[in-house]
Amino acid sequence: MNREDFPMLSSGVVFFDNGATTLKPKCVIDKMDDYYLNHTSNIHRGEYEASVITNKLYDNVRNLVSKLVNCDSSSVVYTSGATMSLNMVVFGYMKRHLKKGDEVLLNKAEHASNVLPWIKLSEEIGIVIKYVPLNKDYSLSLDNIIKCVTPKTKVISLAHVSNVVGDVRDVYSIGKFCHEKGILFNVDGAQSVPHMEVDFKKCNIDFLSFSGHKMCGPTGVGILVSKKELLEEMDPLCYGGGMNSFFEDDSSYELKSVPTRFEAGTPAIAEVIGLGEAISYLLSIGMNNIHKHEVELKKYLLDKIEGISNLIVYNKSCDSGIFTFNIDGVFAQDVAVYLNHYNIAVRAGNHCAKLLKNEMNIKNTVRASFYFYNTYEEIDKFVEVLKNSKDIFKVVL
Amino acid sequence: MDPNIRREIILDNYQEPYNKGLIEDDNYLKTRTNSESCIDDLNFMMKIEDGIVKDIRFDGEACAISTSATSIMIQTLIGKSVQEVKDILNNYKDMIYEKDYDKDKIGELVVYEEISKQPNRINCALLPLVAVEKMLEELKNEK
Questions:
Q1: Each residue of B82-96: pLDDT tens digit?
Q2: Tens digits of per-residue pLDDT, A93-111?
Q3: What is the Cα–Cα distance from B119 to A323, expressed in whole angstroms?
Q4: What pLDDT is stored for residue A42 in this prediction?
Q5: Sign of CA dihedral A194, A200, A204, A206
Q6: Which CATH number is A339's domain given?
Q7: For chain B, which residues lie within 8 Å of any Cβ of chain A, measuring from their own Cβ?
Q8: Which of A15, A43, A91, B60 has its CA 20 to 30 A from that of A173?
Q9: What domain range includes position B21?
Q10: Which chain A residue has its CA at the smallest distance from B64's CA?
Q11: What range defines the domain where residue A325 resides?
Q12: Which of A164, A333, A365 to mutate to test the interface with B (most CBs of B within 10 A)?
């Protein structure tokens, strides 16, 4: 659907790398162009016309985010992306509130940006990281989480949708459980917010991170949503202009209120405005429609690949538009090169989830990840190319 | 080179690579090489005695180009002096980057002479070279 909105699709590319980044609709590009062409100006304190326009657009994106994920607009922080958001949670909030011996529950399917900051924090203050075992299909269940919880468990941190196997975690039940137990619930929404309805309040989420570029927005901008009272207790990682009320030569200072105190320096103004346009665009399509289409595409694909004997699929059961596979005996990267030969863009590798190899016994996979602009015809082409993969080395070498 | 012969050499070396598998031996130089731009991840070990490369072994996961280039390079370098190895590596690098090079010096590695047409695979072809250079550097530091 909406293919005509995406200039890059006119090249004929079959873009199945949406888990890495998505294509940008013309309206987002136009909106950013408009900022650069017609009202370039910095935010805050500008009294001229262009600055007033920019301020209004920039600030309104918090309202759009609040509509998208059901949160208060005053608890929306602009960041450079989900990675930065997650680092802000770990080093801005957790570092101040956790102590030696406190336990944080992760799992081995998490992206690097939800593992490495915690490893670094454990090095710094001695928190204990525990990995919740995955199910046989590499999914994560609340039952397994509950089994790992001890009185020392202070945080459960997970991706709403795993970027490798695409399993959709039951954040509603997990959030409810966390709420009842007084455990902080940190959610990486990078692979869910762009693709489905996510309800920050209903799911009792404490911190929600996501990126703009994975949801039709520009690179360089992301969002951290939290509860106002938690943001009040979070330290900024970056100090400078725009985030302080005053500072004096006796070293006294006062920071601005949240969320402004987390946005030091000139932010990515065009990108924030572009993200706002992307959110409006997605909302006009409807998040449920997007999710439904992706799941249907995957179901269609699974039916079509029945009988391709050299195909190993790792995530048949997951309810998202992520399809993770290998061709038997062929290195994942060679498969990606082969698909590129037919103008099909996918991703090969460990997908930044470097611990998952211990669970899957395979280090690298090929990931095809869908979005609403992908079509059944593209799936047909993909399947045809996979069917002919016996000749793969004739193509790639 | 005939594309079919080239493909056959690469494929043979990918499917049955030479000296794949590491051994326990402290007399080897060791390094791990994973490319910044792709997902190849190989461990290397190399034994040099009296200025001659006696053995090179490797293990790990990598694409057809990296694996085959490693296999061919190992066969090309074993038995050569350190000076000869450097000369081969330089000529190989020049070939990859489409500069003038001496074909006679690099043996079967010539199968990658057209790899520059696939820019995203250049690093794959260079992976064993980077590993051997790293180990030679280590040797220099040990002296």
A1: 999 999 999 999 999
A2: 999 999 999 999 999 999 9
A3: 27
A4: 93
A5: positive
A6: 3.90.1150.10
A7: 6-7, 10-11, 38-41, 61-65, 67, 118, 120-121, 124
A8: A91
A9: 3-142
A10: A334
A11: 286-396
A12: A333
